[in-house]
Structure formats: structure tokens, C-alpha cells
Design a protein that fits this description.
Length: about 300
Amino acid sequence: MSKRIALLLGGLSPEREVSLVSGRECAKGLRAKGHEVHEIDPANERWIDDIKALKPDLVFNALHGLWGEDGRVQGVLEYLRIPYTHSGVLASALAMDKQKTKAVLRLAGLNCPDGKIVSRFDAARDHVMPAPYVAKPNDQGSSVGVLIVREGANRPPAELAADSWPYGDEILIEKFIPGRELTVAVMGDRALTVTEIVPKTAFYDYEAKYADGGSTHQLPAGIPAHVFDQAMEAAVTAHRELGCRGLTRSDFRWDEGGDGKLWLLEINTQPGMTPTSLAPEQAAHCGIGFPDLVEWIAEDASCQR
């Protein structure tokens, strides 16, 4: 049955441009299924009034990053009592905090890299952890602001102390995990498959994720069966332990040449839905076309998630 859908895209975060692409692709897929879709950008301060006036059957959240993926928009929609997609307030807020997420997932038995929250000014003054390590915002996605400090680096990244640094004064310093980059999307309580990502840049950064040809994806990943199964199980465990709903994607490193462990780096509660994104690619591999995927996400919408 055709539904009236308010689709949120764009927003206020550094991931705005990615969200605009995700949102337009989702809108196209939902319209292909016969739904009435109205695109609303929360960068417009009247966005809540626009939703109230529309009286939608549900809100499809295609936002990424802060003010979209961190529980605040979900809180507004709970207050308005309008069903919405993806995870609820608590799971969204928790998953957006990378350090707190790791604390929860370690209790569930998953391997997560050691790390600590520090002032960006302290991190720019001296190494706060033996290199190699990763310096990154604790609450951003799409690899924005991620810096890798290689072994032997004489100094930490100077840009952390720059006036132009846009990602807040506290950052996460995390042990660098070498190895192969893997990811698993979870749809409901079903892990789809494992993809190995081979970036054409130094690591799987913003450009590798979204530039056409920035990385190659092997799916299913050509890894040993026990590692494949472990990644699938760990992704479902992370999804459940955080109380996630709808579609998520968990990112891993497999340290094949070192300790042999599978390390969970983070979980994304609003995975990208662009033409180069991993979750829809995995769904297609499982025989779920893009319009069917976004319709499933829409049908899963509810309040009190």
C-alpha cells in the first residue's frame, strides 16, 4: 500500500553531502515502489513544522552524522509520535560515541582496539600513545577527520591544534590495527555477507568511500571460513547489544599477519545508501534490490525503537 513518507536528507553534519546522495537514492527507490515521498532537509529551521504539516505515515531517516544519526532527530520524532526508520534514541546516541560503544561491545566478548579520549591540543603537542595509532573524532562517521600516525613519526599531526579543526576539542586516540578491511551489513537480525574493501588510497578514507573507483569491494570476501563466520556473528552481536534496529553496518580489521584476531572498529546505525555504498551492495548480492531494501526499511519504521 502506498504511504506518504517524509524523507530526511542533508542536515547539519560534515556528512551532509553524503546524506544528500543517500537521500536522493532512497527517495528514488521508494517512489519506484509507488510511495509518495517528500524530501525534507533539516538544515532548514522549519523542518519540524514541515513534517507536522505533511502528516506523513512515517519518516525515512537518510541523515548521516551529528543531528541525524546521534539520537537527537530520533528524539524529536518520538516526541511527534511519528514512526521512523533505523535505530532509536539510545542505540543511535550510543553508537555515535565510538569509545562508549567499544566499552559495551567488549562486555559482549568482542575485540575492540584500545583507545582514550584526549584534548586535541595535547594530542598535537606530543604522542599520547606509542605510534602507530589513529587520531579521529569520537562522534563522526564517513572517516571524516581521521588521521593515521605511522610508526616512526617524529611528531603528532599538527592539524589537530589548528584553528580550522572543525570536529570539537576532544578526540579519540586509538591503537592502529593493521590488516584487511572487512565489513558486514545487518538487516533486522540477519547478517548479509562479508565484504573485503581494498582502498586505492593510504586507508579507507572519505575519498576511498565515496569517489567512483576509490576502492574495490570483494564480496563475498575471500577469507577463511572461520573468519567469515566470526565477522557475521560479531556484526549481529554488535547490532543486538546496542539495541539497534533496521539496517546497520559493522566495520572490522582482520590482523591476518599479526595476532590473527578480528577487531571491530565501529558500528554504523545509518549506513550509506549511495551508489558506491557497501550495505546496498551486500543486499543486492543477497538478491535484495535497492527498491526492495528501502521499502523493507520503511516497513520496519516505528516509534519507541
